[in-house]
Amino acid sequence: MAELRSEEMVLNVGPQHPSTHGVFRLVVTLDGEQIVDADPVVGYLHRGTEKLAEDLQYTQIIPYTDRLDYLSSMLNNYALVHTVEYAMDLEVPARAEYLRIIVMELNRVASHLVFTGTYLLDLGAMSPFLYAFMERETIVELFNEICGARLTYNYMRVGGVKWDAPAGWLQKVRDFIPHMREKMRMYHNLISGNEIFLDRVKGIGVITQEDAISFAMSGVNLRSTGINWDLRKNVPYGIYDQFDFNVIVAEHGDCLDRYWIHMKEIEESLKIVEQALDKISEGPVLGKVPKMIRVPAGEYYRGIEGSRGELGVYIVSDGKDKPYRLKLRRPSFVNLQILKKMLIGQNMANLIAILGAVDIVLGEVDG
Predict the structure, then answer these.
(1) Range of 227's domain?
(2) CATH of the domain at 228
(3) What are residue 280's phi and psi, to 5 degrees?
(4) What's the Cα-to-Cα distance from 193 to each of 185, 196, 198, rounded to whole Å?
(5) How many domains does the chain have?
(6) Is residue 2 included in any domain, yes or no?
(7) What's the confidence (pLDDT) of residue 206?
């Protein structure tokens, strides 16, 4: 007897669907409820950052990096200035290095909170979204105090940071740490053991180690497959080698593992911030930097552990005050490549759960 098949249907998910966390279109072909094909369509947010950088001095490029992964602007800032400092062999003052660590790890916490809240919202739970944004708001207010902005910070500078921390700011950060740890226990009680949540994400959207490597994945998506790789540990940059923290690794590669790693990484980031607060000392926050920054002629690449994986900056310089060419390795864009393979054969009801767990920001996908 011939297999019964329904008529295939092509369905547009987007380009304005809220669960895509940006302007993203997914063209899905369905046979009944089963996904038989899926084509991601990107480019709706493309602003030409890499091309624009060719006509900008290095310090002028920093605000453009804010608008890539706009949930992790501090890390974007750092990726650029760190690459320029590496190319110019510049020394960064100790206080600036510690301030950088503090704001970057706080930004990682804020980004992971947005993932947690919006992911649960994608799955139909409203309360975790509201709670997560309450804690994120505290971090945003801290950033507003130190750099004068809530989302696009423009805080890093080649050779250090824009401003020192205002009086009392470091104590406010210290006070936030036990508060956040207490809230993490609440999140685990609310979410991590919830049977409905577990049924929606356990065993769904599995990525194998072989596929993760083949698709050049990084960050949480890579570590969920059991591969222990974190640039802060494996290729230390800045002063990360001075801190004691764990790289969180899972083994099943499913949506549950990716949620769990996000949660545990928040706790590890709090440990790093706490150690930085203990070690930071008084001193300058900007090193000796030429008034006109000129990167020596050559090619340079540095990668950092962004909130979504390896965020890399590749600079080709001809010795002038502007890059001859600048290329960004955007982890959201790279990680998104595997989406089609993850979706084919899945039930349509699992689409949003799988897409949300990949944790993309479309500003970084399109660049």
Answers:
(1) 49-366
(2) 1.10.645.10
(3) -65, 140
(4) 11, 9, 7
(5) 1
(6) no
(7) 97
